[in-house]
Amino acid sequence: MSWNLILPLVIIVAMFWFMSRQQKKQREQQQTMQNSLQKGSSVVTIGGLHAIVDSVDTAAKTVDLDAEGVILTFELSAIRTIKNPVAPVAEKPTVDDLKPAETVEETEKITDDTDKPSDSK
Question: Has UniProt tagged this entry with the keyword Transport (predicted)?
Fold first, then answer.
């Protein structure tokens, strides 16, 4: 075999090795990004949708995104980037927290004498 045939083959093998190495790094980076998803994180999908993570299902590999009140379900692989996570919002009071007061103060009932019927006989 001549060097004219071996040199291009070596270059092609080196290119394939280099490309597979880069793809492996990108896959690992994508996997760590998907594992770091949590509720409240702001994300951008591959379609350009900006939304906030509502829930993550690692078993089904899906994520529910809240886009201005609309909940959408996407595959984890559809998340392109994760922005800085949103600061946790203080919990809103639930119905159980809004109980009526234990004691009720009695108030005087004010009536006007003109509203009462007269006792004329």
Answer: yes
Which tens digits make up the pLDDT trace of 80-116? 888 865 555 556 656 666 666 666 566 666 666 665 6
Residues 6+ apart with CB under 8 A from 74: 45, 62, 63, 64, 65
Q: Taking the model in full, what pTM does it have?
A: 0.52
Provide Rg for the chain, Cα atoms: 33
Using an 8 Å Cβ cutoff, are 63 and 110 in contact?
no
Q: Is 114 helix (H, G, I), strand (E, B) or coil?
A: helix
Banded model confidence at residue 33, pLDDT cuts 50, 70, 90: confident
